[in-house]
Task: inverse folding
């Protein structure tokens, strides 16, 4: 007998999919969003200019197969896929990182993505064992996977790894300084005296990029989350106002 349990923990929703290979399991007591609800969500997730922005860093193997299934579902709901990662945590875990186009996401958002995505993954059946489906925010020390990430988080420290050497070097750490055409800038924190402190690296060589946890980053992340929460609350009040003003 197939069982599915859901549990919300902080900013992630962890759903255990139980059953032998070939068994298709679905969340118990969940409701798939209707097209009407989806359209409403799309109107709320401005700016839409970055919603369909392609990712620069892609998965491989099983992660890539699940990402192929997940990305259309996530985008249809008005969110963006950040990363898919399978691991042996809790037996076997499929982690889906997602966000709104403004870079934020809440527990309710994660829950909605999980409800809609779980049946899609189960129908395709790419995982040959019991697994946990975990939908979460990218976190404060988040991966950087789109051009807009390098603009949004300019001024913060990041670790960068390239697929091949740039001036004899593949790994960099420093403050993001923005983008120019097909390159992004990093002000290095390990430069010899008298040497140029800023390098411009090609997006085409990007293998991995992640923000580094700092006090400034924590403060900026909480400020962005608070702003998004206030905007969402204001929009909710407008949607539920029993006496809207008439012009």
Result:
């Amino acid at each position: 007998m197939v069982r599915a349990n859901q549990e919300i923990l902080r900013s992630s929703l962890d759903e255990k999919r139980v059953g032998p290979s070939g068994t298709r399991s679905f969340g118990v007591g969940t409701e798939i969003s209707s097209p009407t609800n989806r359209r409403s969500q799309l109107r709320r997730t401005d700016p839409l200019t970055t919603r369909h922005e392609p990712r620069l860093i892609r998965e491989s193997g099983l992660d890539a197969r699940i990402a192929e299934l997940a990305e259309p579902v996530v985008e249809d709901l008005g969110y963006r896929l950040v990363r898919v990662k399978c691991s042996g945590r809790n037996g076997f875990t499929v982690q889906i990182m997602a966000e709104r186009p403004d870079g934020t996401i809440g527990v309710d958002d994660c829950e909605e993505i999980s409800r809609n995505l779980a049946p899609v993954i189960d129908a395709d059946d790419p995982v040959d064992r019991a697994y946990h489906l975990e939908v979460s925010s990218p976190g404060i020390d988040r991966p950087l996977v789109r051009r807009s990430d390098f603009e949004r988080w300019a001024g913060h420290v990041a670790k960068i790894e390239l697929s091949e050497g740039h001036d004899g070097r593949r790994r960099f750490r420093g403050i993001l300084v923005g983008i120019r055409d097909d390159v992004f800038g990093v002000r290095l924190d390990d430069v010899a005296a008298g040497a140029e402190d800023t390098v411009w690296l090609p997006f085409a060589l990007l293998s991995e990029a992640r923000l580094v946890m700092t006090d400034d980053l924590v403060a900026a992340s909480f400020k962005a989350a608070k702003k998004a929460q206030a905007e969402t609350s204001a929009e909710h009040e407008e949607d539920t106002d029993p006496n809207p003003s008439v012009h």
Summary: The first helix runs from residue 35 to 44. The domain at 147-211 is CATH 2.30.30.180 (SH3 type barrels.).
